[in-house]
Design a protein that fits this description.
- With 223 residues, this protein is of the alpha+beta class.
- It has three domains: 80 residues, no CATH class; 37 residues, no CATH class; 69 residues, SH3 type barrels (Roll).
- It contains six helices and five strands; from the N terminus they run αααααβββββα.
- Strands 4-3-2-1-5 form a five-stranded antiparallel β-sheet, covered by helices on one side.
- The longest helix is centred in the first third of the chain and has 51 residues.
């Protein structure tokens, strides 16, 4: 019978590390999915409970099943998913756009909510479109000289004293791109890429494991 080569302690270390590396992507995927499922469930739970109460009155024999927490969570998630689908469908119609417009007029009357809603909507709109004459996905030196990270240009600014062009660049974090940093970078210091938003987001969420084969690391302005 052949014996495994190597010291038992080293084999144990290798197996432990392999196990950790195997579980990390599963764990991160579960954390992200759980986050959205919990939020969807919490949002739809009041409606699911109301539906369950109505069904319980009409079908008392099913009361034990209908009031089960896991079933109510499923109903809550299903309700929110259907509601989001209907909202997306409604916004494609003229009446839906008018209703959204009326809602936004109401939002405009609430100072703090107005700023938050308007800023988030503007960011989403900006990231969905390609800037005129440039690339949305760029590299910038961050967090220190000699290191670069992926960022998204959200706006071009002008220095009021020198007229120098500056870019507002959003730098998302890994693996959660909803948090990040806002950097103001001289336009000539940006390194443009030919990556799409989908490719950049996949690169960020995967920690760099999934990416196009090539990238421009050095600035084209660099001599």
């Amino acid at each position: 019978m052949m014996q495994s080569k190597g010291h038992p302690f080293k084999r144990a270390q290798r197996y432990l590390l392999t196990g950790i590396l195997t579980i990390i992507p599963l764990w991160i995927t579960w954390v992200v999915i759980e986050f959205f499922l919990v939020r969807l469930s919490d949002a739809g739970r009041p409606w699911a409970q109301a539906i369950a109460e109505q069904l319980e009155q009409k079908y008392p024999d099913l009361s034990a099943l209908i009031t089960t927490p896991w079933l109510q969570s499923i109903l809550a998630i299903a309700f929110i998913v259907i509601a989001l689908y209907l909202l997306g469908w409604l916004t494609t119609l003229v009446i839906g756009r008018r209703l959204i417009g009326l809602f936004e007029i109401l939002i405009e009357r609430i100072p703090l909510v107005k700023s938050l809603y308007g800023s988030v909507k503007k960011l989403i709109t900006v990231l969905q479109t390609k800037p005129d004459g440039g690339q949305r996905v760029v590299l910038i030196e961050f967090p220190s000289k000699g290191m670069k990270t992926v960022g998204f240009i959200t706006r071009i600014l002008i220095d009021e004293h020198t007229g120098r062009q500056l870019a507002a660049v959003y730098v998302p974090t890994t693996p959660n791109p909803t948090s990040g940093y806002l950097e103001i970078v001289p336009l000539e210091n940006l390194v443009p890429t030919n990556w799409s938003m989908d490719e950049a987001m996949t690169f960020i969420i995967s920690g760099g494991a999934v990416a196009p084969e090539k990238i421009s690391f050095d600035s084209p302005n660099k001599e």
